[in-house]
Structure formats: structure tokens, C-alpha cells
Amino acid sequence: MRLRDLRNVVRVAMLLAGATWATVSTCHGDDAWPVRNVKIIVPFAAGSANDASARIYADGLSRRWGKPVIVENRPGADAVVGGGAFANARDDHTLLYGTASMVTVSPLLQDSLPYDPSRDMVPIASTASSILVIAVHDRLPVRSLQELADLARAKPGELSWSSGPSLPHFVFAAMLARHGLKQIYIPYRDASAQQADFGEGRVQILSHALLSVRAPVLAGKARILAVTSPERQPSLPDVLTVAESGFPEMEIEGLAGLFGWRDLPPALRDRISADVKAVAADPLVRSRIEASGAQVLGSTPGEFSAAIERQRTRIQQISRIVDLKNIPR
Q1: 305 CB-side CA count, 13 A
Q2: Contact call for residues 42 and 71 (beta carbons, < 8 A)
């Protein structure tokens, strides 16, 4: 065989081998995943409620997948830093443990984002919902949201409040605006300082995640008036919802979940979702997440997408009550 003919034979063989490998990869790639460590980017600080839930799920998923699942915290700029890091990875072994508000709120607050939330963040599964509450210092003589509103109306500009970022902030600001109430907003960069001031009564009202008010409540220095979820929480069975309290405009869920990159194959997305649901069903996982101040979820991609759309509608309603860009922050 001449050298040129031999080269042609080798070239054809290589092309056939490549085509065969591509076919095998397409057919079996999802089954083989993960083939290396999986990274979960958390756009929130270590020690936060969402960080706690992300680490619990990472531990459970690591056991199911037989590969390390590494949590990387990338906080900053209302989760924009972490969202950008996730989008730049462009990798099916990099997932995002994000909140629905990254899709529903961030585009309303930021003129330019380093990613397209609707395109680059593919919902895989909801994981947990941070329990959001309205709490007051024990020295404030109110035991319901209605009593709080009445006191604020009687003492305009005399009561102080603070909040967690994003959703807890917006719903309380919307309540004040809807009822024509004036209170003093106190911003914080340091969550520990905020919690300390609330515990000492320097801040009288706190709209925040349950985890952030738990210590002063357990110490008898504060009480919870309401939860913002549509239903009462099993961990707080005697606490009314905001709707039951007569303030439906405050209803919102602190929804969080796993997102994949936009090119994530649907079959792999569904497989990861099923694994998340299996982890969520573990009694130990449930108890750990509930202890972190969240409600355990675990849903299909479709259910997660539908929940995000419901929150988007809710945020649009709130934005008609208050200007989200210009409320005190």
C-alpha cells in the first residue's frame, strides 16, 4: 500500500472513531456524570441561612454521586458577584445554589447584570425556603401586626426598623407605604451588629430570616409577630401568617434552589433534580435544614420554574406599591 493510501485509511479510521465516540458520549454522558468534582457556587456569605442549606445538600449529593461536592462562597452586590461567577464557568459540573430573587428582583434593581437570569440560570430543583418573619423587641408593646401598625400610626417617625436584604426589606417597606406609615429605617452592613442592636432594643422591628432573629427570641428579648409565607410554619405553629394578620401585601417566600448552566442537557437536569428530591426526603437532612430556619422543599424543574414565576408576579405587585430602586436600603 502506498504511503498516501495509508494516510487516507488512517484519516478515515480516525474520523469514524471520533463519530463513534461522539455517539457514545451523547448516549451515555448523562449516565456517567459526574466525572469529576462538582462545585456549587453560593452567592451568599458563609454562615447565612442559604449557605447552611447549600452545605447540607452538598453533603447529601456527594454521597449519592460518589464525588466531592465543593461549596464556594462568592458573596457581594446582592448576589450579582456569585451569579456572574457561575455564568462565567459555563460548565455542567458547576451549579448555582441561588434564590428565586436573583431571577425576579435583580433585573429590576440592576441596570446591567453580568449574566441573563432568564437564560443563563436553568432551574433544576427548589431546595428550601428561608422562613421570613416580622419580629419586634420585647419592650415594644405589640403582639400582632395590626397592633404594630396602630402604634406606628400613633407615633409617626418614632419607631425604628431594619431588615435582611431583598425580600424581607421590600415586603416591610410595601406594608409601610400601603398604610401610609412612617418609621426610621436603619441600614446595616454587618449582620451581627444588626442582630446585637435588635437584641438590645436599639432597633425595635426586624424583618428578616428566622435564623437572624432566633437568638434574641430564644433569649426572651424579642417576639415574632408573623411569617410571610402563605401557610403557617410547622416550627412556628402559633404564629400567624401575614395574610391571616390582615397584611396580604407582605406575603412572599424565601425560595432557594439549584440552577444549572443554560446548556445543561434536559436529561441531566432531571436526574440532578431527582437526586435533590431524594436528599430532601432524608429525615436527617430535613431536621438539619429546619434547624437552620428553613422549610425543606425538593421539586421538579417545572415546579421550581412555576414557583419562580409566582414570585415574579408578586414582586411586580410590590413594585407598584414602592419604588424598589429608591426605597431606603
Answers
A1: 13
A2: yes
Give the rounded distance of the alpha carbon of 329 from its chain centre: 19
pLDDT category of residue 30 using cuts at 50, 70 and 90: low
Are 247 and 139 in contact by the 8 Å Cβ rule? The answer is: no
d(CA 295, CA 176): 27
Give the largest CA-CA distance in the chain: 101
**316 closest CA partner among 115, 208, 116, 170:** 170
Positions of E strands within the chain = 38-42, 69-73, 94-99, 122-130, 132-137, 160-163, 184-185, 205-209, 222-227, 254-260, 294-296
pLDDT band of residue 17 (cuts 50, 70, 90) is very low
State the pLDDT at residue 49.
83
Q: What are phi and psi of 260, to 5 degrees?
A: -115, 170
| Pairwise CA distance, residues 25 & 311, whole Å | 38
CA 98/CA 86 separation, integer angstroms:
10
Work out the average pLDDT over 268-287: 97
Which domains are seen in the chain, by residue range? 34-130+253-319 (3.40.190.150), 132-250 (3.40.190.10)
Q: Please give the Cα distance from 323 to 101 (Å, whole number).
A: 16
Q: What is the Cα gyration radius of the chain?
A: 24
Rounded mean pLDDT of 72-84? 94
Q: Which residues, 6 or more positions from 261, have their beta carbon under 8 angstroms from its beta carbon?
A: 86, 87, 89, 90, 91, 92, 94, 120, 122
Q: Chain centroid to CA 137: how far?
A: 27
* Nearest of 268, 321, 216 to residue 35 by alpha carbon: 268
Beta-bridged to residue 135, according to DSSP, are 206, 224
User: How far apart are alpha carbons 68 and 55 in whole angstroms?
Assistant: 12
d(C-alpha 87, C-alpha 49), whole Å? 23
